[in-house]
Amino acid sequence: MGKTKVVGETGSYGARYGMTVRRRALKILKKRHEKVACPRCGKLVLMKRLSVGVWTCPSCAYTYAGPAHVAKA
Ligand SMILES: [Zn+2]
User: Fold this and answer.
1) Could you list which residues have their CB under 5 Å from ion ligand 1?
2) Structural contact between residues 13 and 1, judged by C-beta atoms closer than 8 angstroms
């Protein structure tokens, strides 16, 4: 259970929270799987989140502070 055509990943929330909120959340959740350019090695990678707002590059292990939930604002 989880993904649906209309509400995507937020389908896991069921009928809760309302359409407006779920649509807003989906916009952010979509960015979760986006690759971003590393500030040090410049490679386009899927950043790993160590903690809230702490990201690390899987390629060069560079760790930096960034947005809380997605690697790129
Ligand atoms: Zn890197």
Assistant:
1) 38, 40-41, 57, 59-60, 62
2) no
